[in-house]
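Structure ticket #2291
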Amino acid sequence: MRGCALTLALTGGIILCSCAPRTALEHGNDTLHPSKLSYPELKWDVPLGKPYRTTLDNGLRLYIAEDKSLPLVRFRAYLKAGEMMDPVGKEGLSALACRLIRTGGTDSIPADTLDERLERYAISLSVSSSESELVVDASFLSEFSDTALAIMEQVLFHPAFEPDRVEREKRILLQSIRHRFDEPGPTLSGAFVKTMYPAQSNSRMATEKSVANITREDLIAFHRRIFGTGNMIAAIAGDFDRSTMVQKLGALFPTSRSQDTTGLEFAAVSIAPRNKCLIVHKPISQAYVRMGLPFIKRPHPDYYPMSVLNEVLGGGGFTSRLAKTVRSDEGLTYSIYSRAQSEYRKPGTIYI
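Resolution: structure written out below.
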């Protein structure tokens, strides 16, 4: 028994010794200080857009790329619109319209049937809204491409806005508005935007009253104004033949919806001219603080240098200066970071 115990002890010692790390002296010259590391030159040419870009007869500006590595197809389209275009008193129109374009049925497919078909063919299809754009996103198996494209054409260009679905989506949106500021994070973000962009189109928020003012006729008018191939830039990539896909999209998406978009303009946005401190009291045990300054508007020659600056300051996670010093070294906070937000539609902000 004592022999067995000795054997086990020696074996354990061998295992431990074999797993012990090598010391710095044992490494010798194998280990370099990070400042002395060198890497081979990165040689990568940015793909040119021209070979992938085409404009269809129906006015659709399309970027298309074959990729047969997987039997999948991905489609995305951007439309010039968004919450900044919502009429005063009907804030929430674009968000509600996008939800209903997807969920409200089409002229030929009832809403319940549409949901069932998307599920049956494993088609992912969404329509979403942000401040300054609408995004259509779809992905599907290449073997169901014809079915998916036919459904997309119906959803995007022939939505029914079924009355019962309109009321349901309005109730869902109202519920989210009622609980919008339950958590301190969204409260902080909303207060910051209101402070930096006072009385501007991008700082107006949907309310229970504004959503109640939206009618089905408003949704139909919104769709008629926004959803045309002339107001759309699309990209599609995946397992297909390029020329065949171009023909399919040209035939499916209606030329009649290639309307003039000169009237679709965003209101000019200005930023707060003076310093201001806003305090929102909430019964919680910790403080959420945001300090910000006006930032550049794109395009701007300093955008990329400033983006690198932000990465070093606080945008780079645990390796950034703010996280390393304030969180890791001093232990004063759990979360600290910086953001440099710059857009084409309005002046940006940089904040901690």
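Closing remark: The radius of gyration is 27 Å.
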